[in-house]
Fold:
Amino acid sequence: MQSIKERTYAIEEAFLSPYACKSKDTKGRDSEEEPCLMRTEFQRDRDRIIYCKAFRRLKNKTQVFFSPEGDHYITRLTHTLDVSQIARSIARTLSLNEDLCEAIALGHDLGHTPFGHSGERILDKLAPEGFKHNVQSVRVVEVLEKDGKGLNLTKEVRDGILHHPKSGTPSTLEGKCVSLADRIAYINHDLDDAIRAGILSLNDVPKEVTAVLGNSSRERINSAISSIYRNSVGKNTVQMGSTVEKASETLREFMFDKVYFSKTAKGEEEKAERMITETYRYFIKFPENLPLTYRNLIEKYGKEQAVCDYLSSMTDRYAVYTFNKIFVPKGWTFIDENN
Structure:
């Protein structure tokens, strides 16, 4: 009798593109494991990521706005879900492996710092070897999760996580889907957040962008996915058409100028920099005060790496809590001597 996994293999063989990364062709894991009768290796990777601690922490990590008070701002978790959905939509139109796309997308930001890309820039300046969130995301799944055992993910998923930035070169088309989906997600939903916060209005968006991509998040995302389909279907590539790509890049540059590097954003980044810098210096000076999990990393990786591992794992509010615990004096309880 054919197992569920074997049935999945048969479906992929029959319906996926010849350029897709089929589940049965995975390059495997660093440590061999007993295979699952029901799930493919990429499906197992997806499940491992969803249930890991780093994934849960994404709900309290900044996407753009530090520790936003409103209920509807994008967090690192909702961004991750957006990327997953867009990547799967692209993969579906091109008959690529949706399970592999989903696993890469769900894991692509596991190593992100508190306070969004501001936190990443700050740690990059502090760490002797530099800091990049995509490299740290791979470190999370290879080393940090499960108390140093890692998740033992497949090579294809780790490759996609590592190479998801724009400058990356994923080895699979599914990895390229995630890389494009990441950019599509953040420029569009960050724009929605900026409008919601009153930093921008829709009329501020350059007309050459709206004329090509549309006026709403739904229209812009649909335009991007449709362009990828038209320019990639039946080919060994995943790419946008030049007109849509140019409009998307214009929108990205607009967001960096008006939102990411705006006076308001930079003012908050200065506060985050002082806080992260002092916390980093404290743990470098007193590594014995790191949690045991991170102290155990020092001998093999050095205290600078262990401190970066700890700080990058923090949520926004836990970073504030840790800073306050270390540097803000506790109040005294006064006795009323007149009673």
Q: What stands out?
A: The mean pLDDT is 92.
